[in-house]
Amino acid sequence: MIRARAIAKVAVLLWLAAAAGCIPDDRHVDEEKDPHFLRGRNLVNGQDFKGAVEEFEKALESNPRSAAAHFELGWLYENKINDYAGAIYHYERYLRLQPQSARAQALDVQERVRGCKQQLANSEFPLPNSQNLQREVDRLMAENMVLRQQLEMARSQAAKSSLAAAAVQTAPVQAATPRAAVAVAAAPARHRVHIVKERETISSIAAKYGLRPAAVLEANPHVDPRRLRVGQSLNLP
């Protein structure tokens, strides 16, 4: 009677130990003996990562609860395929199916999941680069200045065309005073000179003398308005 009770007590203790995970679970060891799992490992060693993914997927078809296959797929998707969403899925499946003896590896997998989520967030919502952003703003401002100067030059040319048309219409009147016309034509063009100071632009210089920027640019055809130098001389009409 006493012996029967002892046997029953040992059986209960063994059952409790198995339920608590104290007895090693050979099921996960058997997972790594699956033919597809073994072929997947060999393909990884041979750098055929897509083929390895296919083999581990077949291992899951044979045993959907294979924690080992889920871990291998998570590692491949994270490090070789760069599919972070797929890596997160398989890592989380591994955490649900992990053996009791793999607690240390579970902590590493949890860290991997956090890293994959960060990579996924960065790919969906990349942070702006402040240097590139400032460079783009500067480029757009320079282009805007050039376009404004070209517009001023176009307006100036249009005004000159209008004056030329008016001169053609008044040609008989000018013919009556040929000496005055010759005197005007013979008079040399006079230009004032401005020395460029720090932070001055074509627009600010023109405004200082009551001129249009296009007129200043016309008087200085070889000057690049985006590269004014301190001490540079500019002709003023």
Total count of strands: 2
N-end to C-end Cα span? 125 Å
Topology-level CATH name of the domain at 15-124 = Serine Threonine Protein Phosphatase 5, Tetratricopeptide repeat
Mean pLDDT value: 80
The computed structural class is mainly alpha
Helix content: over 70%
Query: Count of DSSP helices?
Result: 12
What is the succession of H and E elements? HHHHHHHHHHEHHE
> Biggest sheet, in brief?
2 strands, antiparallel
Strand content: under 5%
Strand order of the largest sheet: 1-2
What is the radius of gyration computed over CA atoms, rounded to a whole number of angstroms?
A: 42 Å
Uncertain segments are 12-25
Q: Specify the CATH homologous superfamily of the domain at 15-124.
A: Tetratricopeptide repeat domain
The first-level CATH class name of the domain at 15-124: Mainly Alpha
User: From the 3D coordinates, which CATH architecture of the domain at 15-124 would you assign?
Assistant: Alpha Horseshoe
Shape: rod-shaped
In short:
By secondary structure, the chain is mainly alpha-helical.
Task: List its traits.
3% strand; 12 helices; mainly alpha; Serine Threonine Protein Phosphatase 5, Tetratricopeptide repeat; 71% helix; two-stranded antiparallel sheet; 2 strands; 237 residues; Membrane-bound Lytic Murein Transglycosylase D, Chain A; rod-shaped
